Amino acid sequence: MPAFSHEEAAFFVANGFVIKRNFVPSQLVDQASALIDNWYGTQMDAEDVAAYTQRSFAPELGSSPELLALFHDSGVADAARSFIGEIAPITTTQIQIRIPESDLTGAQPEKAMHVDGVSCPHLDPAELRTFSMIAGVVLSDVSDPRGGALKFVRGGHHTMADWFRTQWKLGMTDQVPPHIDMAEGEAFIAQPGDVLFMHHLVPHAVGLNHTQTPRKMAYFRVSHKEHENRRLQALRDPWLDYPALTAALR
User: Fold this and answer.
1) Which of 43, 1, 18, 32 is CA-nearest to residue 192?
2) Residue 80 · residue 72 · CB < 8 Å
3) CA angle 73–227–200, rounded 5-degree value
4) CA 138/CA 148 separation, integer angstroms
5) Does an H or E element contain 201, and which?
6) Prediction pTM value
7) Do 70 and 93 form a contact (C-beta atoms < 8 A)?
8) Which end of the chain has fewer surrounding CB within 10 Å, N or C?
9) Are strands 94-98 and 204-206 parallel, antiparallel or unpaired?
10) Residue among 217, 182, 249, 214 nearest 40 (CA)
């Protein structure tokens, strides 16, 4: 698979994301999707939907070969390296499902605008679980923005980096500044096999699913090999973890 083009790299710098359409082979998508569908239909505990939403659905499947193949055997890993350079090992998958509201006895929690791993409601505010880039592989049709589509703030990584540098302090419970918290966000409309490569600092939210079909995504949290030792610096310098990208654009 080809890596990012120069135009895509420049787009990523300006907007904080790149979408690769029909990027993951259908065979890999079908295998992963079938595994999740089986779990969803036979093993999901409805009482744990809130916990799944905060962390991962089907956590016992996160390290399965069928899920990890979406990253390692599809070209996604090579594409991520073309921006970040040497990455930390990817050994697990975050599975997210937005369940149709009509299938629930109670509401699935919405996710307000946030940056992953910063001041998460289920974590100690002083704890950072950040990374460099998220690679989201689409496993179901997301053609309707009312179907629990992820919504992101285009270019918001610049705003967030400035906020982390000048206003935010470790231990604060605010995840984003007020004007970002109120943003509507741009819906990620996609088809199975599409991949969203998004800078960690792009704020995003997820709403309710008002369609009849579960929305399934497999997310991979990609980190530069040194990210673990410089999480706070990476919040303030959006390109610290992207030496390959910055070198390519010189």
Assistant:
1) 32
2) no
3) 70
4) 13
5) none
6) 0.95
7) yes
8) C
9) unpaired
10) 214
CA distance 220 to 245: 19
The amino acid at residue 24 is V
**Order of all β-strands in the sheet with 111-114:** 111-114, 204-206, 150-152, 186-187
**How far is residue 240's CA from residue 224's CA, in Å, rounded to a whole number?**
9
* Rounded Cα gap, residues 159 and 17, in angstroms: 14
pLDDT digits (tens, 9 = 90+) for 67-126: 999 999 999 999 999 999 999 999 999 999 999 999 988 889 999 999 999 987 777 777
**Tokens 């991949």 correspond to what residue?**
195
The first and second tokens of residue 224, run together, are 């530069």
Q: Two tokens at 106?
A: 């109670």
**Both structure tokens of 73:** 């055997």
Name the token pair of 214. 């579960």
Exposed / middle / buried, residue 28 (Cβ in 10 Å: 0-12, 13-18, 19+): buried
